[in-house]
Amino acid sequence: MADFQGVDFMRIDDLLTEEEILARQSVREFVTKEFLPRIQEHIRQDGSFPMELVPQMAELGLFGTNLSGYGCAGLGNVAYGLVMQELERGDSGLRSFASVQGSLCMYPIHAYGSDAQKDRWLPPMAAGETIGCFGLTEPDFGSYAQGMRTKAERKGDGWVLNGTKRWITNGSLAHVAIVWAQTEDGVQGFLIDTQNAPGFDAPDIKGKFSLRGSVTSELYMKDVELPDEARLPGVQGMKGPLSCLTQARYGIAWGVLGAAMACFDEIVQYSQERLVQGGPLAGKQLTQAKLADMLTEITKGQLLALQLGRLKDQGKLEHVMVSMAKRNNVDIALQVARGARDLLGANGIVDDYQAMRHMVNLETVRTYEGTHDIHTLILGEHITGMRAL
Ligand SMILES: Cc1cc2nc3c(=O)[nH]c(=O)nc-3n(C[C@H](O)[C@H](O)[C@H](O)COP(=O)(O)OP(=O)(O)OC[C@H]3O[C@@H](n4cnc5c(N)ncnc54)[C@H](O)[C@@H]3O)c2cc1C
């Protein structure tokens, strides 16, 4: 029997540097030893995250991994992708925590913030002492985020914010909320110091079937007064939030492979041990066809992610490439998780096995950061030059 612990069928490790392999190894060990023993307890509660692991995550350089300066690890984009993969091998909620902190919160401060904003927020965010959240989606505007109703109006030298954001990862945990709002000059980003913002509230959303090991909240802003220094000065319009989403979607294209690999590892082992009709489940032709499909799709996804990373390091990445990789890799990860859940039979519906947890998590990942359909439309427009209605 082949060893699929790392699921490296096409010897992709030969294409990686030592630094990239080391980054992957350290996160794999952390997830195996520290995170996986805790996840069952957290998913049995709704919306709880093992916050006690945050200092260790910071120590490993998991916040702002591919950013430089301000205490960030400054690794390349392939190493960053492998880190995301290993986190999501644990759980999509764990990867989401790091994605939101690094790609959706630290990235815009790093790219568009003033020097004072960078000095104030980035070092404690890299150290995991300050947690961020990213508020774009609203109750009535998800895919069409530019329709947002949250407004920031000038008042004297500062601003007043009013509006509601929904489905915000880490909302109630956040010390700093990056909120995107309509202004007279188009959409702009504001950094709300949540501990010192009268009129700001972040209640949690309960009853989730998916991403239960992750905090998801609403953000309410009622006459929240902010100084002009709280506005991100370096960007105006939807380019601001969309450029952050490109960063996070890049991480997702890698991350979901970790979830798929976890399901694949589990089902290869299980099918060897499970006896059905006089022999191992693994010895049946139908099972082998399913496993062959899973391995092939994971391998194709790995090659897509790796080339995406190399292009990103060379400054040649285009957002449509990220759309293709996010769309494809989430889709195949979901297929692998569903197939593994099916092969587990009844055992597949309990949390002693990972497949169903990954499967329901991946339903969220298919929806957030641009739904599968939205990425289809982005690719369709790129191919035809026509924006579909
Ligand atoms: C657990 C979780 C965490 C999240 N975290 C965050 C976060 O941290 N910050 C944040 O800002 N947001 C976050 N989101 C929100 C997420 O990004 C949105 O849910 C997503 O953008 C989709 O928006 P929607 O839910 O309003 O769905 P809708 O936009 O209403 O879409 C519903 C359906 O319609 C389809 N559709 C939409 N437009 C079209 C079209 N033009 N043509 C054809 N079909 C279309 C979609 O593909 C989908 O199938 C999170 C969501 C979840 C579930």
What is the terminal separation in angstroms? 50 Å
- The CATH architecture of the largest domain comes to Up-down Bundle
**Ligand kinds:** flavin-adenine dinucleotide
Average pLDDT score: 97
Query: What's the level 1 CATH class of the largest domain?
Result: Mainly Alpha
What amount of the residues lies in strands? Answer: 5-15%
Walk me through what this model shows:
This protein has 3 domains: 12-126, Acyl-CoA dehydrogenase/oxidase, N-terminal domain (Butyryl-Coa Dehydrogenase, subunit A, domain 1, Orthogonal Bundle), CATH 1.10.540.10; 132-230, Butyryl-CoA Dehydrogenase, subunit A, domain 2 (Beta Barrel); 239-384, Butyryl-CoA Dehydrogenase, subunit A, domain 3, CATH 1.20.140.10. With 389 residues, the chain is of the alpha+beta class. Strand 4 and strand 5 form a beta hairpin. Helix 6 (239-273) runs antiparallel to helix 9. The protein is globular. The protein has helices at 18-44, 54-59, 77-90, 92-112, 115-126, 239-273, 285-313, 319-343, 355-367, 372-384; strands spanning 132-135, 151-155, 158-169, 176-183, 186-193, 200-201, 216-226, 275-276, 279-280. It has a 4-stranded antiparallel sheet, covered by helices on one side. The protein has a 3-stranded mixed sheet with strand order 1-4-5, with helices on one face. Flavin-adenine dinucleotide is lined by residues 100, 134-137, 142-143, 167-169, 211, 216, 364, 367-369, 371, 373-374.
